[in-house]
């Protein structure tokens, strides 16, 4: 009995359709794993809520709200939304590195499927998970008193910027996982993620930092997204007169596009060369 192996498509539209179909198959595989192991997903959703409660109620009384008044949690939540997008990189890294370490990725590479399908499928699953996490965070924010004040269109644009940041960062996570290949190395990634969070405008004004450190904080992609989201939601922000602060919306689009343009092709190329 012979097994027919499908002929790889030749034209660009056929190859794109092939990659999307195979990518969706891998996405459904990842979603099925989450359905069988919901504890991992639940813990990932509860951690940001714990951080919101900690900052909002334990430290909130000691925080200086920009403008000298208002609800601190309205200032806090946009930074927490961006934080959730940043921390998702750890889940991406762990999932991809685990598949590589267990040989699952090698089995995928031996199958007659699009070479980009595995990384595309992983990105699709993680984006769906990020949408769910963002919805949970919005519910948490509404429960603690956060509101948006600039209309539904602006709010949807803010959510789009947050997901755009997550889309860019997940490619960073995929590339690093394919490069390092060991799930245990997620500790190294965590050491990098926390400074990115705190070296930003999410919880502290860059103006309170030494001048050179404040510039780095304002140039942080997380700061750009947080500032732009605060503006679109109509929530209080740190402001600032620097070029970086005045062009936060432009940077909130430019940084993710740049990161995606760098790490997406690197991820696909690294996947194709895993045995080298």
Outline the fold blueprint:
Blueprint: H1 12-36, H2 38-59, H3 72-101, H4 104-109, H5 117-143, H6 152-180, H7 186-198, H8 211-219, H9 221-233, H10 243-246, H11 248-272
Helix pairs in contact: 1-2, 1-5, 2-3, 2-5, 3-5, 3-6, 3-7, 3-9, 5-6, 6-9, 6-11, 9-11
Polypeptide structure, described:
This protein is mainly α and 276 residues long. It contains 11 helices and no strands. The model has no long low-confidence stretch (mean pLDDT 83). Its main location: membrane.
Give the domain tally: 1
Figure out the total of helices. 11
Kindly report the average pLDDT value: 83
User: In angstroms, what is the radius of gyration?
Assistant: 20 Å
Structural class: mainly alpha
Task: Identify low-pLDDT runs.
Answer: none
Order of helices and strands: HHHHHHHHHHH
The oligomerization state is single chain
Distance between the ends: 34 Å
Global morphology: globular
The profile of the biggest β sheet is: none
Q: Percent of residues in beta strands?
A: under 5%
Number of strands: 0
Helix share bin: over 70%
Keywords: Antibiotic resistance, Cell membrane, Membrane, Transmembrane, Transmembrane helix, Transport
Subcellular location: Cell membrane; Membrane
Organism: Plantactinospora sonchi
Protein name: Transport permease protein
